[in-house]
Structures are given as C-alpha cells and as structure tokens.
Design a protein that fits this description.
- The protein is of the alpha/beta class and about 325 residues long.
- The protein is about 55% helix and about 15% strand.
- It has 15 helices and 10 strands.
- Helix 1 links the parallel strand 1 and strand 2.
Amino acid sequence: MIIGIPRALFYYYYSPLWKTFFEELGLEVIFSPPTSKDIIQRGVGLAVDEACLPVKTFYGHVDLLKKQVDILFLPRLISVAPKEYICPKFMGLPDMIKQKILDLPEILDPVIDCSKSANQMEKTFLSLGESISSQRLLIKNAWQRAMANYLNFQKKVKSGHKYFQALTEESLKSTSKQTNAKAGLQVGLIGHGYNIYDYSISMGLIERLEKLGANVITAENLPDNLINLQAMTLPKPMFWTLGKRALGAAMHWVNQGGIDGIIYFSAFGCGPDSLVGDLIERYCRKRNYPILHLTVDEHTGEAGMDTRIEAFIDLLERRKYHESNISTYGQSFSSC
C-alpha cells in the first residue's frame, strides 16, 4: 500500500514524524514533488478565491498526487498545543478537498486536537494505526520511533542546522549548520514554515538573502522557552500557535539583540497573519528596529520582491556601518 502526503502546509513541521510512523507500519510513503508554478496554478484553479496561497498550493499537491497513491493523508488540524489553535481553514480542509477534487483515493483524515491535552497527539496516532494494522505492539513501537525521529529533527534545528535541509532523511543524519563565509548581516526571518521553506511560495527568499551576504535565522531555530518567555509578556495570551511563535521570536530578537533586522513574510488573505504582522511591525517601529513586511499571493512578481529585499539589505548595511563608526568614535574619544 502506498500512502501519499502533500508537500505543503504542515508537511514542513511534521513530515519526519508522519513518514516514520507510516513506514514502521509497513506502508510505502511518497511525498508530492516540490512546489512548482504548475502545482500552484492547479491549486488556484481548484480552490475558492478567498483561500490563501499556501492553501491553494495544497490543492495543487493533492491533485497531482491522487493518481499515484492508494491512500491520501490529509489530517484535520485543530490544535497542536494545549490552549492554542491552528488556522480554522485547516480544520475543514479535508472536506474542501473532497468537494473540489474528483476521483480521490481513500483518505485518512484524523482529527488532531491537542487543545486540552498534549497527549492527544499520541492517542490520535495510536487510534489511526489501528485502522492500518491489528498489531498493537507494532503500532506503539511505530509511534515511539516516529516521535524519536521528530524530536531528533527538532533538536538539530534548535542547535542551528538549516531547517529545510533537516527535513530530508539524509540530512537528519548529518546536517550542515547555518554559516556564512562573509560573516555579514544577521537577518531574522519570520513566517509560517509552509511559506518561507517552500521555495516557490517564498520565491527562494532564504537563498536570495544568503546571496546578498545575509545569514538567515528563523523562529524555528530558537528554543521554545525563549519564545514562550517573550509571549508571556503580552497583555493577552496569543492562542494562535504559529502567531505566538512569530511574535515571540520577533520580541526576543528586538530585546536581546544579535539580529540586524527582521523580515516578516506572509501570504495575502491570512487572517491571523494580518493581526500578528501588525503587532510585530508596531513592536519593532516603537523601538526603532528595522523590519520589512513582505506579503505575497499567486500574482506576486520576483522583480518587485528583489527590489524590496535589496533595498532593505542596503538599509541594514548602512545602519550597521553608521553604528560601527559611532562606536569606534566613542572608544577613541574615551581613550583621549
């Protein structure tokens, strides 16, 4: 049996767990290919106009994958952490897919809701395993190995390894850390993983920044305790999991330093991002901290993106040069 997983949305967070779990149960796992213009156009033609770009892209991945597999894995995501939630569109996405895409194979769409207990994730997958195998010990071992692989993936990312490389099985064994020979600017990149790590959706944003001499750090590279510590200072709890991660990372970088500027990358039409992005911009500007907010949809052109990125990097370089000169002048003056 072949089970297919679309290379979109929460694939960028949980694919190491999903892949290991199903393989341990004896299924062959295949992912759809990396996002391309053709996949995006497929999705745009199938999805409702109000959907955001990553959701439209998800449609394209499912449509491309459906004839290659016996089963499609389309989890119904509600929450992945206690008292926190995911975008409501993900909750109804399996139903939306079933209504718009014809000739679908069997679909596994377990409800993942950890809003009341973090252990609910384990219970969900153990129950899901029973629909594939009658061997309870095999299912339990599959979950344990899947979780171990996932935690190994998280450990590598938190220790500074490149996130998009750590997604592959080979790089889980040996992944290069984020380095930049030019030792130039340190840029904090904030955005949902399914946006910034998808080369087509982000138009290669990370690679473009690295070519301009910037070392890119993402929110996923920060320990959770640092993000949570900053998020706790908010007047009200942020109940969007990804929004909390974005806001906490931005606040940490602004307060602790070490980052020359922040780029916030979002998709047009994302409700939570419209709120979180505004909060981050206000927080940065109140503290005179450089921030660039990039918003994309299926019509966004690369030329305009390049212009804004290059201008922002130039601003950061000038700012750093100016601050360096002031610091040098102050040292010289104090030694007189």
